[in-house]
Design a protein that fits this description.
The chain has 13 helices and 12 strands. By secondary structure, it is α/β, with parallel strands linked by helices. It has 2 domains: about 250 residues, Type I PLP-dependent aspartate aminotransferase-like (Major domain) (Aspartate Aminotransferase, domain 2, 3-Layer(aba) Sandwich); about 140 residues, Aspartate Aminotransferase, domain 1, CATH 3.90.1150.10. Strand 4, helix 5 and strand 5 form a beta-alpha-beta unit. The site of pyridoxal-5'-phosphate (PLP) has 15 residues, from helix 3. Pyridoxal-5'-phosphate binds next to helix 3.
């Protein structure tokens, strides 16, 4: 049986690992050398040098990441933003136009709005739920379409099959940020996407201790993006490669646990009178529940919810939590909570936020791998404390 046919749990451990182990080492050693003896390389991009993303640590990760998403090739980068910006700058040139879903990660949104116009690249946003409206935004120079698998912070799941079909009809390159799902829950190449992007800082590494990114796709696109990255310089240091590879090995164990825990927490919160609304695609009442079941192998550890009270109750609730840490980012082993109105969406006006469905009392949770019973007990006591103080519930 080839690695390609194996299950993701097995691939995480064995795919890409050197077949003749270096010095017999079972764990891949760190090759902390900036340059390597020449072996007659004649092309600039083949010179063995850290910035050119070709140390043994890079090669190993590239093979593993490609196999995880059943794609041809992969490339690690110094951050998720390095993956996203380098991919967009490879696909788009002066005079090109991009279509992007309206709810994107803030850093990506800012790059599209603030940096691309200066390079002569324009963009229009398309509504997630209305594929009929996408055609009206097409221009003669539209080159690509950019989406996220699960959106932040409302955890919506776009009609990803419609995105690929639309792109095929109109000759567009498809890019998808697969960070929130991780390769465990969604593999873009299997659904026809050209380029999958990750902030490996999140689920892929899973231990909240590095920043890294990845581009996964066919050989042609990954090759072109690698050449651009070689020039822009956003390469990942071998020690961070080592940590990422180590973290990735437990992705399936973590993600399975996080999928289940988020589902249990969402169901618990849904039954609480002090909670107005819970956003989690694993809930039968979520507008994209059926689509999520069709596209995803799990709904991830990300959920958000609105308290019935106001900002005061939200602040008291977060303060009363004993386990989740009040911090941005996501996808690690420890649970985190944030208030999107103060973090990812703070750049928007209150009107824009309310249009986007991000209220001031929305709380986002990244569920970790703690015992879910402990997390639920913690949420329960924090809700009681938060609402007892004002006698609301
Ligand atoms: N994409 C998503 C969905 C994210 O949430 C983030 C960071 O929060 C990024 C990309 C950027 O990743 P990084 O911080 O690794 O550059």
């Amino acid at each position: 049986m080839s690695n390609k046919e194996r299950r993701i749990d097995t691939k995480l451990i064995h795919a890409g690992e050197p077949r003749a182990r270096f010095g017999g080492a079972v764990a891949m050693p760190v090759f902390q050398s900036s340059t390597f003896e020449s072996q007659g390389e004649s092309d600039y991009h083949d010179i063995r040098y850290i910035r050119l993303n070709n140390t043994p640590n890079h090669h190993c990760l590239h093979r593993k990441l490609a196999e995880l998403e059943n794609a041809q090739d992969a490339l690690v980068t110094s951050s998720g933003m390095a993956a996203i910006t380098t991919a967009l700058l490879t696909v788009l040139s002066n005079g090109d136009h991009l279509l992007a879903h309206s709810s994107l990660y803030g850093g990506t949104h800012d790059f599209i709005n603030k940096d691309l116009p200066g390079l002569g690249i324009s963009a229009d946003y398309i509504p997630l739920e209305d594929p009929q409206a996408w055609v009206a935004k097409l221009r003669g120079n539209t080159r690509a379409i950019y989406v996220e698998t699960i959106t932040n912070p409302l955890v919506q799941v776009a009609d990803l099959e419609a995105v690929v079909e639309f792109a095929r009809q109109h000759g567009l390159v498809t890019l998808i940020d697969n960070t929130f799902a991780s390769p465990f829950n969604f593999r873009p190449a299997e659904w026809g996407f050209d380029i999958s992007l990750h902030s490996c800082t999140k689920y892929l590494n899973g231990h909240t201790d590095i920043v890294a990114g990845a581009v996964i796709g066919n050989e042609d696109w990954v090759g072109r993006i690698r050449h651009k990255l070689n020039h822009l310089g956003g390469s990942l240091d071998p020690h961070a490669c080592f940590l990422l590879q180590r973290g990735m090995k437990t992705l399936a164990l973590r993600m399975r646990h996080q999928n289940r825990s988020a589902q249990a927490i969402a169901e618990f919160l849904e039954g609480q009178p002090s909670v107005r609304k819970v956003n989690y695609p694993g809930l039968a009442g979520h507008p994209h529940h059926q689509r999520a079941r069709h596209l995803l192998d799990g709904c991830s550890g990300m959920l958000s919810f609105e308290l019935a009270g106001g900002v005061e109750e939200v602040e008291r609730f977060i303060e009363a939590l004993a386990l989740p840490v009040y911090a941005p980012s996501l996808g690690g082993v420890e649970s985190l909570v944030t208030r999107p109105a103060l973090t990812s969406h703070s750049g928007m006006s209150p009107e824009q936020r309310s249009q986007a469905g991000v209220s001031d009392n929305l709380i986002r949770v990244s569920v970790g791998i703690e015992a879910v019973e402990d997390l639920i007990e913690d949420f329960e006591q924090a809700l009681k404390k938060s609402f007892r103080a004002v006698g609301a519930v």
